[in-house]
Structure formats: C-alpha cells, structure tokens
Amino acid sequence: MSVEKKTGFSFGFSKTKQKTQIVHTQAFKDETLIKTDEKIDLISSIDSKKITFQDKSLNEAKKPIVIPCPKNQTLIDKAKKSKEDVDLIDNLEKKLETTEKNGDAEAIKALIAATRDKKESKEDENLQIPIGEKLDEIKELEKVDEPNYEAIDLEQFGKAALRGMGWSEKSGIGLTNKRSFQVVEPELRPKGLGLGAGFNKKSKTDEKDSSENSNLKYRKGAYVEILTGKYQNEYGEILGFDDGLNRVLIKVFDANETVSLLQNFTKLISKSDYEALSKRRRR
Fold this sequence. Notes:
By secondary structure, the chain is an alpha+beta fold. It is built from 7 helices and 7 strands, in the order ββααααααβββββα.
C-alpha cells in the first residue's frame, strides 16, 4: 500500500522599489553648496569602558561679548514720548472721523477717550511722588539671577562694556575717527621760574648747537652765553651754583661783574667758541 505524498504550495509578496535617478543641476554642481545635518562628535580619549568626547564649545568660534548699556531717559525724552503719544491719538481720531461708523470704530473711540482722560489725570497729580516706576525697576533688578563671574574673563569685561556703549575694534573714536593718538607730554617749567613768566623756546639752530655740544655740562669753570635780561648776548664763566633755586653765578666777560641767573636763561658753549667770541669783542 503506497502512501500518497501531499503536495503543498506557498506564495509570498515582494515589493520592488524603483531606483531614483539623481539629476545633477547647475545649482548643486558645487558639492560645497550641499548642506548635511549630520553632526560629528570627536573622541578625545577611550578608556576600558568609557568613551570621552571633545567639548563642542571649544571647537566653536567664540563670539565677542557685549554688555548692553542702559540708556538714561531724560525729561526731554519723556516730553518727546508724551508728545508722540498725543499726536498718535489725534491721528487715530481723524482717521475714525473719516471712516464709516460701526461698532469697532465706536469701541476704538471709547478706548482713545479713556487713554486721554488717564493721561490728563496723571498730569494733574503733580503732588504725588512717582515712586511706582522706580519700585518696578528695583523689582526687575532683584529678579536677576546671581551672576557667574567665571563665565567672562576679567580682561574681556572692559571691552564688552565698551562694545555695549557703541565701541568697535575696527573703528576709531572721537570726531576724527582715529585709532591711535600721539601722547602729548607736558613740558615742565624750569625750577625757580615764577608763575606767568615765560621762557625762551629753543629754535632749530639752538637744537643743532645743543646736539653738537651734548658733551658739555653745567659745572664750575664752564662757559655760557646769556640769552635774556640785562646781559643778553653776553658771555661768561660759571663760578658756582645755587642748587636750591636752580641759579648759576656767572662772571660776565669784559664787565668785571658777577651775576646770578636762572640756569634756563643760559646756554653752554665750548671753550674754543668762548675764546673766539672774546677775541671779536676785544677788537
């Protein structure tokens, strides 16, 4: 007796996906224009069971910090603002008069009238001390969280405050918009020179002579030329000093007189010049 084998059949479904063809256009010819949303995390170290990633904040470019400077509202600014509000209300009333009367227009007119009455009542209340606005400002300041001083470097804090006041590294300051200024050093007055008294400014010839006679020093026996006073354009020899008043004792040539003058009113000359000038005077 033969065992009949049962024949079975199976069936299934399959979905064929058509391949999408990518068309290259001129707009996306450059691969740099195609943006991807993939984020890459860089690994800094790998331990036995731990992977440490790099801090993203270190890789990101730091933007310049700006600390905004609050503007003070003066009485002139408040007056301008109130005038602008009044002008705005007047313009709205004129527009409503030209438009057709309906429920919305009447409601807007009622709001404008209430606003005007409120402003007039505020102007009449001059005897009350307006501390409400100040209290609101104080409450806003109290709501500020405790500052994190480690978030901003101390060196960058000053620049951040200047940026908030409108300063920029690329532009200069002042009306001339200059970025660098030459430091003007004040010229010290000579010791012993009274207030209001002037002193002779050095000319180009004097600067040239001083550069040539740079080795000369004020000392006993040195020769000088008198620049101002009774003995102007005279020559003499230094006999001594009065350090307390910055004065020198000079024996005037061919006058047999000893005078005391401020050191600033004399100019050092060499011995050869003194002898040459004295010979001319004797002639």
